[in-house]
Amino acid sequence: MTRYLLSRTAQALLVLLGAYTIAYLILYLLPGDPLAILLNAAGRDIDALSPAEIAEARRFYGLDGTPLERYFELLWNALHGDFGFSASKNAPVAQLILERLPQTLALGGLAVAFSIVEGVGFGYLAASVRSPVLARFLARLPAFGVSLPSFWLGLLLIHLFAFTLGWLPAAGNDGFRSLILPAFTLSLYSAAIYAQLLIRGLEAASREPFIVTAYAKGLTRGEVQFRHAFRNAALPIVTLVGLQIGNTFSGAVLIETVFTRTGVGRLAEEAVLRQDIPVVLAVVTLSAAGFVFINLLVDLLYPILDPRIDHASKG
Amino acid sequence: MSIRPPLLSVRRLSIAYRAGGSLVAAVQNVELSIGRGETLAIVGESGSGKSTIALAILGLLPANARILAGDIQVDGGSSVSMADVETLGLRGRIVGFVPQDPMVGLNPTMRIGGQIGEAVTKASGLHGRRADAETIALLEQVGVDEPALRARQYPHQLSGGMRQRVLIAIALAGNPALIIADEPTSALDSTVQKSILDHLARLAGERGVALLVITHDLGLAADRADRVLVMKDGRIVEQGPPRAILTAPAEAYTRALIAAAPALDGKGLFGVRRASRPAGGELLRFEGVSKRFPSPMTGEPSRASTALDNVGFTVHAGRTLAVVGESGSGKTTICRIALGLEKPSDGRVLFENRDISGLSWPEFRPLRRRIQLVQQDPFASLDPRFTIAECVVEPLVSFGLEKGKGLQAAASRLIDLVQLPREAASRYPRELSGGQRQRVAIARALALKPELLFLDEPVSALDVLIQSQILALLDELQRALGVAYVLVSHDLSVVTSVADHVVVIRKGRIVEQGPVAEVFGDPAHPYTRELLEATPGRRSAALVAV
Amino acid sequence: MVDDSRSELSTARLRLAAGRAALGRSLRPSLRGAERLGHLLRRPGLVLSLAILAFVFVAAAAPTLLTSYDPYLTVPADRLAPPGAEHWFGADEIGRDLFARIVHGSSLSVQASSIAVGIAFSAGLVLGVIAGFAGGWTDAAIMRFIDVLLALPSLLLSLAIITAIGFGTIPVAVAVGVGIMPGFARTTRSEVLRVKTLPYVEAARLGGASRARTLLRHILPNSCGPVIVLATLDFGVAIIAVAGLSFLGFGAAPPAAEWGTLIANGRNFLVTAPWLSLIPGLFVMAVVLAANHIARTLEDGRP
Nearest CA to A253 among B449, C248, C2, C51? Predict the structure, then answer.
């Protein structure tokens, strides 16, 4: 088990390094002169600078030296918590992110919790309904959830609950009340996906021979559904939550923009608009780190949930 | 005759399935009753409706099934419409159920003890320690070793036979008056099957529980039941005590079933079934072949699991050698090594005195025209996107032997050879039945005119009557083409009907080999005797012979 | 071992058994063309979905067939006109017809989504087939690369690409395509792996078929089904992703407007003219629903 834990952790770190490398390659080595882009982000035009000034700017942004040297320098700095300097915000990137991270964590965390509760609750309900007509209708609803553009749903909810009904604030980040609409908006897509998977899983489980065994014991429909079908159908959702969490959090880019909240997502959006490369690299790396960590956790927890997976024997 | 009313009687039962907008009859006007302590067997092929009856009594029909008519009466009570069977609450306390496949019949994510305890609690209201004690007692009764340990384990940690015992414990937990067993052992090896059926019969006898056994195997039904009920296409064809059914079958269908079960047809299992033919020259020889697979635990070959251990035998041209063994005996590994899909760890495989065990894939390729394979599952061995004609001539195309018109002619010739209708050429595999598909697979294997054909459980996925048709076809083809067979099977009755020589294999070692009549007529090894005794129909054959 | 013919418990098998009993042992007839059409007409959802996608593709190819309004013509008098007979979907803040703008926007949105799915499909298919068929070291290397891509949330991966190559319809399409590619590679690989071990592939190899023949005639045709389903499903995903990126302002430069841009423009008038945002959004939703529905139908209909 210890061996499994260590090898799994090492794998996770390698994936993270790979993710950082790919982000670096995209941002610094794709066509387009990073120096020009960065100077532009700082509000200066490269054509207006003298060669000496360009050389100095190149040094300032860490763009002197070969791409490989730069890669290791940036990596070394990142490992020490230094993600460079944001030209557009005129502040260290690490500081910018740290300031805004709590807002995004609260939003994303609440959205993840919402999505699990909504998705699992709805899926279970849809599969428990006795009327076949109603069951078919409920089973089709999540398809709408998957097809809704989240930013548009946000606007719709603002229109309904803020402007028309006046129940909740339309924008800003002051307190829990301002979190409800954006978190719900962010949660709906994942919730719909979980509900679809659970409905399918419960349906498939209901055809499993062991369900017949359970019914033959004299158990009621509810007992069979809860004790036998649900556990088996819910296992894949654990994996899916891990995979989907990255998408839920990164959806904050759109949702923080719609609800004009100051968070990391909004920071990323502004950074892309101003082509502020160090900020984008930092946000991408941070999200990959979160994704890798959550999925490492899911992997380590899974054997506890599913007795068939036994890592001790796999070595 | 008892004056007491039967435990359970079903009258005028008709059930249909909705399939693609129309109703397809599955059970038609079936009447049956079971007395207290009686054992009734329903025998039929797949699609005969036998399982549908079991599920209807349990109130567990799938959603697309519809009960068209029928009443059920329990213990002399009032007649209730079969559609309302769920409201009777039969499940658990009155009727227990032992499902078909123990590998999938238990919840994989729940401990054994919990799954039995749940049934105990439901039936007797016991909780906590007292339910646990009852659970352990049940496990003990069904013959599970170390019951306290097993109760804490999960299904995947138990063997198939052990799981089936657990399922029997679950069925017994409610102390039912009737246990319905749907093909309770057809997924298990015959020796395990025998000990489980013996055990089930003994427990039922001790407790006075009635048994309703559903099976495709007439021999098994005749061995075990007080009364046998033969079903075909949703109707009861014939019923009566086993002896009457076997000795004086009234219906042609029953006679065909008996004829298809070599253990039952009066000649006994070991009568010489085929005229002996002159042995041809030596074709294939295994010399001290061993195969070790690297252990999945450590990956080290030194502590590997041994699949084959010093196996040697000879196949002669134009003759049939059968390899008999239970699951895990290594019989499939023999096939794979001979076909160059695996390399032996030790020993040699000689084809016409040439060592072929070390050949690379391209070096082996010319030999593929002389050694071919028919696979086990005809539902998976044909590419669903190929027409039947394309399937059978594919080897000719791969070897570039025929083109255009010649290919069409070859397809027709091969389809004729396996006695399929010509129209089949343009059909797709999904439009064919299992037996027809197996004929296609045989045609494909014969396309290159091989001298040696490996048959890997060629009929185990098919119904009994279809089995005997396919075996007859194989026999005919051998006479016509002089092709040698290596037949791999777990089923002794299949082996006796087509083989000349037999090799009995157990845990990778050959325990006995020789001519079929000798090995099975006078087995030298206790394991061979055990296998023979476990073959369903043995007891009944004695009945018939009297 | 589960013997297929002996097991009757599951519904599907019961249906199979029932069908077999009814039709006897003879060859079963195949579905005729007229029957297929009949099946189609009995599914209004499918017909509607096909109609919606047809509308969108016509709008993309020849927008003037569907609307006579010029999407760029400003009519100050019609400023923020509500939906009605004259302007079906209303008019925007400078009096441009919203229906015309949606129809003309189709071209950019459909183009971007198609390019995105095309990139993801072809790159994913190649990577997945190589990984699944070659196995061993090659497989491990490709799949580690895919794992790394999957660790980057697709929206952020898209943002990084846009930062590097700039704004516009094509960059957005490329960014979205790279973001959804890993899913294709994984699905293709797992299908190839599944089909590779099936008995009929082994039979073909034993019948002397070369590796190339096995791959092209057996493995690819039998593994492409789920990949095509995924492509249809991901057309919907791509529509939403493209709309999201243009909503953020990374798409085509004004006055050209993709669907996302229209939603973003309407934001400022959410109180006074909510339809400016809501109608384009409904339109996006309808297209995505249609793609999903067709994907599901394809999935259910596979043999």
Answer: C248
* Pairing relationship of beta strands A85-86 and A91-92 according to DSSP bridges: antiparallel
CATH topology of domain C2-300: MetI-like fold (1.10.3720)
- Report how far residue B43's alpha carbon sits from residue B537's, in angstroms, rounded to the nearest whole number: 13
B131 Cβ partners below 8 Å, 6+ apart?
B117, B120, B121
Which structural domain range is residue A205 located in?
Answer: 102-275
ipTM over 0.90: no
What's the mean per-residue pLDDT of chain A? Answer: 86
Nearest 5°: phi and psi at B543?
-55, -45
Phi and psi at B59, nearest 5°, equal 70, 35
Residues 36-75 of A with CB under 8 A from C: 37
pLDDT digits (tens, 9 = 90+) for B496-516: 888 889 999 998 899 999 988
Instruction: Render pLDDT for B141-181 as a digit per residue (tens, 0 to 9).
Output: 888 888 999 999 999 888 888 899 999 999 999 889 999 99
Cα separation values, A241 from A295, B318, C145, Å:
9, 61, 22
- Which chain A residues are Cβ-neighbours of B102 within 8 angstroms? none
**Counting every residue, how long is chain B?**
546
State the DSSP code for C216: I
Smallest Cβ–Cβ distance between C148 and the set A19, A153, A276 belongs to A19
Pairing mode, strands B22-34 and B8-19: antiparallel
Identify any residues that bridge with B212 across adjacent strands, giving them in sequence order: B40, B180
- With 0-12 / 13-18 / 19 or more C-beta atoms within 10 angstroms meaning exposed / middle / buried, residue B312 is middle
Structure tokens at B97: 């159920």
Collapse the DSSP code of B305 into the 3-class scheme (helix H, G, I; strand E, B; otherwise coil) and give the result.
strand
How many whole angstroms separate alpha carbon A1 and alpha carbon B77? 59
The C-alpha of B19 sits at a distance from chain C's nearest C-alpha, in angstroms, of 6
Helices (H), chain A: 2-24, 34-41, 51-60, 67-79, 93-128, 132-147, 150-157, 177-206, 209-216, 221-223, 231-250, 252-258, 264-273, 277-305, 311-314
Number of Cβ atoms within 10 Å of the Cβ of C286: 17
Q: How many domains does chain A have?
A: 1
Q: Which residue has the tokens 């067997």?
A: B41
Residue among B97, B104, B122 whose CB faces A219 most closely: B122
Strands B320-324 and B501-506: parallel
- Asked whether B193 and B109 are in contact (CB, 8 A), the reply is no
CATH code for position A141: 1.10.3720.10
